[in-house]
Amino acid sequence: MKTWNVLVGISLAFTLAACGGQADEEENQDIPAGGDSTMSGEWLFTVDHQLSDDMLYVEMYIENDSEEAQTLTFPSQQLYEITLVNAQEEEVFRYSNEHMFAQSVTEKTYEPGETQDLREEIPTEDIPAGSYMMTVELMVDDSTVESLSDPGTFTKSIEVEISESE
């Protein structure tokens, strides 16, 4: 009986030692999940704008700057958010307040070098003249943003000057 207890004890010790050693390796946050490298330098997101009459035209460009196909996942069918904030840090416009989006996951695969052009027109007739900070954010899922070396890759802020309506 003593021999049996010793064997069970030794087996238990080896099992605990083996499990304890593997847990540290699996929890190493420096190693990306699935062995993938970070997405630094693989995505370009640029924003341009023009003001004309009573309209703010916003152009967004998403480019896969890598040498392999990449997929962006969006938690809903909303691909981007645009906000305008005045000098008093009051939000005067939010794109999503004007629209409804289906709450279904949307995926878009981009081939190497592929660029997608998104455009939006924002009426400015009800926005007081003045200087605004326009922030444009691509609404990709959090796991994609967290995998980037620069978490601000898909967010751009631009100063916009809106004139009096004529």
From TrEMBL:
Keyword Signal among UniProt keywords: yes
Coiled-coil annotated spans: none
Annotated InterPro entries: Intracell_prot_inh_BsuPI (IPR020481), IPI (IPR038144)
Signal peptide: 1-23
Swiss-Prot/TrEMBL keywords: Signal
Pfam entry (one): BsuPI
Intracellular proteinase inhibitor BsuPI domain ranges (all copies): 47-140
Protein name according to UniProt: Intracellular proteinase inhibitor BsuPI domain-containing protein
Species this chain originates from: Shouchella miscanthi
